[in-house]
Amino acid sequence: MRDPADDMRVIVIGSGFGGAVCASRLAAAGFSVTLLERGPWRDTVPVRAAGIAGASPLPASGGIRYLLRRIRPLGGPKNGVPFGKKGFIELHAAGDLTAICTSSVGGGSHIWSALMVKPPPSYWDGVAAAVSASGMDVHYARVFHELGGAAPSRPQDVPNRTSHAWAGKSFLAPVADDAQPAMGLLFPRHARDTQPYRTHDGVSRTPLDYARAEGAFGSPSGAKSTVDALYLLPALGSGRLVVRELCEVTHIRRTADDGYEVSAHDHRGGRASTFSAPVVVLAAGTLNTLRLLFRSRAHGGLGAMPALGKGIGTNGDCLATWRVDDTPRRNPALGTPVHGRIRIRGHEDVGYMVVAGVDAPPLPRWLRHAAAAAASKKFQLIAMGADRADGVASYAGERLRIRYDMGGSPIYGQVFEAFRSLAQASGWRVKFDDGKAFTAHPMGGCRISDDPALGVVDGRGEVHGLPGLYVADASALPKAAGVPPSLTIAAWASHVAQGLCQSRGMRATPSEPS
Questions:
Q1: DSSP per residue over 128-185, as a string?
Q2: pTM for the complete prediction?
């Protein structure tokens, strides 16, 4: 006789915004959740306070050997070029598109810019029957609350905040403080305050601990919202979540009893492991989710999924380096991970643009001074926008390839023209590559649609023809958000978890912020 407890088991693959939010919700609803993450726990104040043993350093403290995990060149080895199983960053060069992702318990929340922005109100219109803008608004509100969306109480005291740091410059249109994005940061009362404040784990820190140390290479103090600290650690305490770090999933197979078998490589023990459950939630990040589904289908483990690989987008990501030679000299290293939103004069409605300092990589000691000097005048311009998300992924020879035409998305030409205009008007060089798409926000390929010919998952995130298999990361998003997408990924994962609970007669946890 089948044990009823078996029906309460769920495997979640990946621990970023999608995986962590979904795992937390399901554990709270009473499911027994096993989360498989290929990366390690990172040694931060909240993780240390929770008693997690053997956490790996962030690159800032561990050095360059903890920076790279793997590079996947298109023509290289089928499994890429490995650098270290505890590396922080993975680079995918998949044909017409190059993308960067992270490898840690907490996923992309360690590298995110902490910007919390909703896409336009029409984003969810007409996507699928089971998802609506009004329904998603509830999930947006909840995850915004959980991730600590906030603004500084005294924005004028935050170094380099764009609403005041660039005030009066003729080449930029003004952006008021109330138009700046909320951030997932524990702001001190104001940046000049020398009194300590408390981070998420209750440990006192000084007001500027959240500055560049809380940037692209992680948040050692816990002052930046990361989903390992905010979702996974509390769920671990409930006893209904188990996190298997350094456990890289290789295949998913549908079983005869309508469940799933998940094969993985245990990097800690150097052995193969197998897990089984009636429900599997994929949240490994867009390209890794796609690779896993393609590979599993190729090996006969899953069904046809005719729309798999369709609708790949970049969120219109464009990066540029702006070499500012101003008087008095600005220090890009001060302030929040992203300094705030800007609007280039004459191009005010082009994309969603922000300014940040250039994070120096964790170089050996003898190179750090030179790297810091090189970055001392450089700001990073980051633009996002609604690309057409018409890229197509394919899989052959154990390699993922993406066809993507930048020329088909007008947002690129508009942003590049805005960059050129800024360089000319400011007199400071803006350097960017307009020849190949690079993104930190790949999305699509498993997109939502009620028609299996057009989408891989339905409006509840369940894969067509494969009941019990769900997708809760950015690969399911129907189109480009055009703004920082982390809040949208978290809200989608919350929606998926709620629908999964309801489909199994479970009481979903309340969706309103407490």
A1: BTTB-HHHHHHHHHHHHHHTTEE--SSGGGSTT-HHHHTTT-TTEE---GGGSPEEEB
A2: 0.94
